[in-house]
Write a structure and sequence with these properties.
400 residues; 7-stranded antiparallel β-sheet
């Protein structure tokens, strides 16, 4: 077979002439080597036309030696391949061995592609964190000193309602702490003496509250930036599983979302509607996209969201109408509904998360339907059929 291939290549190389179109040469090569991919034939033909027909032999031999591997293998020495055995498995011939070798090469290529994706993600998140730190620094520089604001307020208070005003509306008063010195106190035009004093005290209190909050935020951003630098180093070194784990600990969706399933024709786009024993409307999503719309577009801030913990399944939404107190019976009904409409074995005891919509957010870059809850409680129920007494599902209320 090898001699026949070499003879076919030599015959084809003899047909090449200067100025010959690449497509014409590629068509001849594919006739000489049945099964050769169209793009590969074009690449080899272009090379052969540029360097002469002997380049084709070099290209094929180089490929067998591992000199034209996918990106994931280029950083190390090319792998050696035994044409009769690959990875300890005996192969009946050349084609079987090459398939095994190329499968391993493609596996490395996929891993390299994943490594590059995680490096890009970690770099983007680090840049975002650094921008947030820079904005916080500007905010700290521009923030007034609360001690100065209080002194201005006390000086203006001591001067009384008769405090002198300038044409631009600012006050010019004696400084109680430095004899012979005047303090200029800015005030919006038309603002009275008492309003200005109260505004200064209010701003001082706000800054006194804001300074610890900014310091806490700075510490959190600096810790996040340091963590992302570590993740970036791990991704660059190829520790992909650890990099994914640490990114998810930081609230970043690091796994690629699976291809969305094609929606069957005629499938309804509206969530299902149930009624709890107490009469509350309960909406249930039918897909990841619908779960996302239900939770982040349909729900009001005080509506209750339920989902089986750590299991794929439906988002369940109790429309509270602003009520803060939903009876436990209704909550347990909705929890059993969530368990019944999730991927849970019948009879299995599961925890169902219950959270106000206001306490939910999407993870940055996460797929549709992914939710992070910062405040929640859990209800333990036994999974089974849709709860007894549930009305037949019907079309949900109109979207708002």
């Amino acid at each position: 077979a090898g001699e026949a291939l070499a003879a076919a290549l030599e015959t084809w190389a003899g047909t090449l002439v200067e100025g010959m179109p690449v497509e014409e040469a590629a068509a001849g090569l594919r006739r000489a080597v049945p099964g050769l991919a169209r793009h590969e034939a074009r690449r080899l033909s272009a090379w052969a036309l540029e360097r002469g027909g002997s380049a084709v032999h070099a290209a094929l031999i180089g490929r067998l030696r591992g000199e034209d591997l996918p990106a994931g293998l280029r950083s190390g020495p090319p792998p050696e391949i035994d044409l009769t055995a690959c990875g300890g498995e005996i192969h009946p011939g050349l084609l079987s061995a090459l398939r095994a070798w190329y499968g391993a090469a493609c596996g490395w290529a996929r891993r390299e592609s994943e490594r590059r994706r995680l490096v890009r993600l970690a770099r983007a998140e680090r840049r975002r964190t650094e921008r947030a730190l820079a904005a916080l620094e500007r905010e700290e520089l521009e923030a007034p000193d609360p001690a100065v604001l209080r002194r201005d307020a006390e000086a203006l208070l001591a001067a009384g309602p008769a405090a002198a005003r300038r044409p631009d509306g600012s006050f010019l008063v004696d400084d109680p702490w430095e004899a012979g010195r005047k303090r200029e106190i800015a005030a919006p035009p038309g603002t009275g003496w008492r309003d200005t004093v109260e505004r200064l005290y209010a701003r001082a209190r706000k800054e006194e509250r804001g300074r610890p909050a900014r310091a806490e935020r700075r510490a959190a951003l600096e810790a996040r930036a340091a963590a992302l630098a570590g993740v970036l180093a791990q991704a660059e070194a190829g520790a992909l599983e650890e990099a994914v784990r640490r990114l998810e600990e930081l609230g970043i969706a690091a796994r690629e979302a699976p291809e969305p399933a094609r929606k069957p024709q005629g499938a309804s786009g509206a969530p299902r509607l149930f009624r709890s024993p107490g009469g509350f409307r309960i909406l249930v999503g039918r897909s990841a996209e619908e779960n996302d719309r239900l939770t982040f577009r349909t729900a009001s801030p005080d509506d209750l969201w339920l989902h089986v913990k750590d299991r794929p399944g439906a988002h369940v939404l109790i429309r509270t109408g602003g009520r803060r107190d939903v009876p436990e019976e209704d909550l347990r009904y909705a929890a059993r509904l969530a368990a019944a409409l999730s991927r849970v074995t019948s009879g299995e005891a599961v925890d169902v998360l219950v959270a106000r919509r206001r306490h939910l957010r999407r993870p940055r870059g996460g797929p549709a339907g992914r939710v992070l809850a910062k405040k929640f409680r859990t209800i333990r129920v036994v999974a089974g059929a849709v709860p007894d007494g549930a009305p037949r599902p019907s079309a949900a209320e109109p979207r708002r």
